[in-house]
Amino acid sequence: MKLVREATAGASDAGDIIVTVLPGSEPGVTVELKGKSVVLKQFGTQMKAVIKKTAEDLGVESALIKAQDNAALDFTIRARTRCAIERAAG
Amino acid sequence: MKNVLGREFPDYIEGYGQVRPFTGAFNNYGERATVGTKRRSVKPAHQTPPAEEKLCRSIDEVFDRIGVRDGMTFGFHHHLRNGDYVVNLVMKAAAERGLKDLHVAATGIFGCHEPLVEYIKSGVITQISCSYISPGPVAKAITTGLLRKPAIFRSHGGRPRAIESGDMHIDVAFAASPTCDPYGNVNGTHGPSACGVLSYIFPDTEYADYVVAVTDNLVDYPAPPPIQITQDKVDFVLVVDKIGDPAGIASGTTRVTTDPIGLRIAESAAALLDEAGYIKDGMSLQTGAGGASLAVAAFVRERMLAKGVVGAFGAGGITSYFVQMLKEGLLRALFDVQCFDLDSVKSAGENPAHMLMSGSLYGNPHSRGAVVNNLDIMILGATEIDLDFNVNVVTGSDGVVMGASGGHNDCSAGSKIAIVVSNLLKGRLCMVRDRVTTVTSPGETIDVLVTDRGIAINPQRQDLLEKLQGSALPLTDIKSLKEFGENLTGKPDAIEFTDKIVAVVEYRDGTVIDVVRQPK
Q1: HEC assignment per residue over B488-507
Q2: In whole angstroms, what is the distance from residue B125 CA to residue B122 CA?
Q3: Which range of residues forms the domain containing residue A41?
Q4: Do B231 and B301 fall into the same domain?
Q5: Which 3 state secondary structure label does DSSP give B445?
């Protein structure tokens, strides 16, 4: 899947995450994750992996994904990531 | 060494001393001695020159007359909560005099005490001991190891025990005094900074070398009733402009949660209490002031009304909800250690059945019997709980200090049934863990965990499990709750800690139940 524009999905509410997808300038999916340190310290690695895998499963070959987390669970992260990618894919 | 819960720490902790390890909640009772006290006697008024009168116009005058020096321990209480000016006022003056190495023995530390961080950095304060701390700048300073000595967290019953036994000597106690006369009679329920009962400062006023009543409302002798601290305990009366900010002292009325999940949890807890036979004439009840804990009281109240039950007493920090139950005749008395809202301040000042209790009367295990011993039902919160029902209320799961024992382990030990109510997931964190980050209350004193995803009963309570057989309540076991939660959140990565001990967590009997190490 080729991304053609920047797009965002999600919300800042508790339990949600804002995912912003930008077309990448080089191959590969890069994930930048921000949020509460108590969550990131314990789950940051897993959450980044979920975002990356969601993108790759959709066939994204090149993207920069920025995520602002407010303690979302994996199913929310997957849904927001997929939505942002489909919006970005035109 | 390792204590009985498998928590590891050195035998001797620098800045704390020799460690007595926790051996079990009910192992440390028997004959106990209390320490001697010093007092300065006062001549009759007609024999007292003006310079020797109790009334002081400046904190410097108080310091001069006491002869404050480096290394002293100052006692404070936290009934002015997040509106307290007294701690900052005293410590500012101490810093300006160039005092060093002071120990702030406050019963509670709030966000308003941020100025202490500077004094910690500059070595004016090298130790803090408290029973309650809110997440904020001072908690952060403790977590990051800025204090030269480890902080000491004691329960509300453990602090008076430490003072009475001589484990902690208070050199000077500062009693925030909402109304006071020139001879040191203190009333807490009247005046512009009225905060209700002054319970937590009583051990200090009994055992400190010097007691200073700090007031912004000096009245003619004698102060109006109810007088809580009497003149025979008070050396000096210091008059200041303001002892607190009423907006931070108490909210108007504490409200029950409106969160549907919180209400569902509370409703299950009340149903469990009813099915297990705890809602009956003569019952007693304590809850935390948090919206969900308080909601349990609301549902218990409905069941009491429906059954025509009259309870013996409500206890602990008192809210408008308990005041209402007292007024309705659903409870015969209240034992109050702290007024959480203006309704309870008013009630404490007017209603003789709304009784104050000292911290020692509340929870001291080495007294002739604390009120927690008479408690049937205790509703508690928890940050984390483990498979053995050990509870953490001191640190977040990232090791950051965000609370202290309060009355948690006093009440869980004393009550006939101690119920933890909580959402299973807090954000992305599952509150049931393999191992809690810091133990505050041992699992042997926690009977039930009620969550939105089911109820787990401590297997040690076979009697409860038998009583609830066939119940329609969503009973499960704690391991299943953990698995359910972790299926949603994933397994947390372990937090790494340095070897530096930043706080010592004492159990109520003075043994060490755990320590807090600085997170990496």
Answers
A1: HHCCCCCCCEEEEEEEEEEC
A2: 8
A3: 7-89
A4: no
A5: helix
| DSSP per-residue codes, B354-374 | EEE--HHHHH-TTSS--GGGG
Which range is least confidently modeled, B146-160, B198-212, B282-296?
B282-296
Residue A85 · residue A56 · CB < 8 Å: no
Contacts of A16 in chain B (CB under 8 A): none
For B128-177, what is each residue's pLDDT tens digit?
Answer: 999 999 999 999 999 999 999 999 999 999 999 999 999 999 999 999 99
* Residue B476 β-bridge partners: B456
Q: Which of A43, A53, A70 to mutate to test the interface with B (most CBs of B within 10 A)?
A: A43
User: 377-436 in B: which are within 8 Å (CB) of A?
Assistant: 396-398, 400, 425, 427-429
Assess if residue A39 is contained within a domain.
Answer: yes
Tell me the three state secondary structure of residue B164: helix
Tell me the average pLDDT across B330-338: 98
Q: For chain B, positions 364-383, list CB contacts with chain A under 8 A.
A: none
Which pLDDT band, with edges at 50, 70 and 90, does B435 fall under? very high
Q: Within a domain: residue A1?
A: no
Q: Write down the pLDDT at residue B246.
A: 81
- Chain A nearest C-alpha distance from B400 (Å): 9
Determine whether the interchain pair B490/A72 forms a contact, defined as Cβ–Cβ distance below 8 Å. no
- Write the CATH number for B272: 3.40.1080.10
Cα–Cα distance, B503 to B516 (Å, whole number): 5
Establish if B444 belongs to a structural domain.
Answer: yes
CA of A24: how far to CAs of A5, A21, A27, A52, B292, in Å? 10, 9, 7, 13, 47
The residue among B383, B423, B428 with the most chain A CBs within 10 A of its CB, best to mutate, is B428
DSSP secondary structure, B35-54, as one string: ----------GGG--GGGSS
One domain for residues B83 and B115: yes
CA distance B475 to B457: 8
For residue B331, give the 3-state DSSP assignment: strand
Mean pLDDT of A34-45: 95
Q: State which of B198, B217, B249 marks the end of a domain.
A: B249
Rounded percentage of chain B residues whose pLDDT exceeds 70? 99
Prediction ipTM score: 0.91
Q: Rounded to a whole number, what is the distance in Å from the CA of A50 to chain B's nearest CA?
A: 11
Contact by Cβ (8 Å): B496, B407? no
The average pLDDT across B182-198 equals 97
Residue B45 lies in a domain: no
pLDDT (tens digit per residue) in B89-107: 999 999 999 999 999 999 9
Those residues with Cβ within 8 angstroms of residue B152's Cβ, 6 or more apart along the chain or in another chain: B16, B127, B128, B129, B130, B168, B503, B504, B506
Which helix (H) or strand (E) segment holds residue B476: the answer is: strand B475-476
Is residue B218 located within the same domain as residue B362? no
Q: Which amino acid is at B344?
A: S
User: Is position B486 within any domain?
Assistant: yes
> Distance of alpha carbon B266 from its chain centroid, rounded?
22
Any A CB within 8 A of B495 CB: yes
H helix or E strand, kind and range, residue B172: strand B172-177
User: What is the extent of the structural domain holding B69?
Assistant: 53-249
